[in-house]
C-alpha cells in the first residue's frame, strides 16, 4: 500500500543510499514543511512536452545531460527500479480532478535543478533544507523515454555532500534572491555534463523566448519552450518574470534563453490550483501574458554568491566569457583515486519523504494510524 510504504520510509532512519555520500556536519536540518513558496499555473496554451515528444537533438541532449530532479531517497528507490506504482500519482497527492494534465503520472520530485559543474547543482534556496542531506537524492534522466518507461536507472541517482550556499530572501520591498548550491558527493559521469551558463547578467529583452525544464507537480521532467520574458526588474536585477507553465515541484528548475544558455532558476509564482464545485482541484490558468507571475532568479546573481564562498570554481574566472565551458570531466572511478561507484545495494530508506507538507504529511498520518491499529490488533 502506498501510504504504508511512505510511512515506513518516513519513520526509518538510514545512511546515504550509495557509496560515498552522506550528510556533512554543516548540513542544514530537514524542515517540517514543503511548498510554502508556490509557483504555478498555465499561461495561455499548455506548452509542456515529454522528452519523447522532442524532435530537436539539442533539446534532448540538454535534458539528458544537465537537468535534475530533487527526490527523497524513499521515492528515488522505486522510480530508479522502474516500480512506478510504488510512488503516488500527482492526482492522488493533490486530489486533482480527472482529466487534468499528467494526473496519473508518478509524483516523486519535490524540486528541480540543473548541473553547472561536474559536482555542483543549482536549485532554489528554499529547496535545500527540506530534507536532511542523507535523505536527498539528485536524479538525472527523470523523464519518460516513451509513454510508459522512465529513462533513469540506479546509476543516474547521486547523493549530496553539502549545501555550499543558499539564499531565500522574500522581502517584497527590496531585492528578492532565491538560490541554492548543492555539492554532490562525487562528480557526475558522462554522458551527464554541466550546462552552458551565462555568468554575467544576460542581455534579455521583453518578449524574448524562454525555455523552462522542470518537474512541476513532482512528475517526470517536462520541456516548455513557449515562455517569454514579461518583466526584467531593471535596476534591481534580482529576477525576471516569464509566462512559463510551472507547478509546485518546479522550484529550482532552469530557464534558458533561445540559444539554450542558462539564464535563471525558478523561485516563485502563482497558486497552482483552483477548487471546483466537485471538490477536486483543477489547474489554474491565465490567458493574458501581462499577468505572468513566474519569477526566475538571474543565474548571474547565483554565480556571484557562489564565487564569494568558492572562488576557485571555473565559473568565477573573471576572464571567462558568458558562454565559457567547464574543464574536462575528471576520471571518477579509478581505483588509484579511490573513487566510489553508485552500483552498490540499496540500504533501508530513511528520513522525511515528500513533495508538499500537506500531501506527504497526510500520507504519513494515514500510515501512522494504520500502524497503530495493527499494533492494537
Explain what you see.
This protein is an alpha+beta fold. It has a single domain (2-316), classed as Beta Barrel (Thrombin, subunit H), CATH 2.40.10. 17% of the residues lie in helices and 25% in strands. It has six helices and 19 strands. It has helices at 2-11, 57-65, 73-80, 90-94, 299-309, 357-376, and strands spanning 42-43, 48-49, 67-72, 111-117, 120-123, 136-140, 144-146, 149-150, 157-168, 178-184, 209-214, 222-231, 239-242, 254-256, 262-268, 273-275, 281-283, 285-286, 294-298. The chain has a six-stranded antiparallel beta barrel with strand order 11-12-13-19-15-14. Strand 16 (273-275) and strand 17 (281-283) form a beta hairpin. It is globular. Residues 1-40 and 331-377 have low confidence and may be disordered.
Could you spell the SSE succession in H and E letters?
HEEHEHHEEEEEEEEEEEEEEEEHH
Q: Uncertain segments of ≥5 residues (pLDDT<50)?
A: 1-40, 331-377
How many beta-strand runs?
Answer: 19
What is the helix tally? Answer: 6
Mean of all residue-level pLDDT scores: 76
| Amino- and carboxy-terminal Cα gap | 19 Å
Describe the strand arrangement of the main beta sheet, using strand numbers. 11-12-13-19-15-14
Q: Would you state the CATH class?
A: Mainly Beta
CATH architecture descriptor: Beta Barrel
Portion in strands: 15-25%
Q: Helical proportion?
A: 10-25%
What global shape is seen? globular
What kind of sheet is the major sheet?
6 strands, antiparallel, barrel
The number of distinct structural domains comes to 1
Structural class: alpha+beta
Global Rg? 20 Å
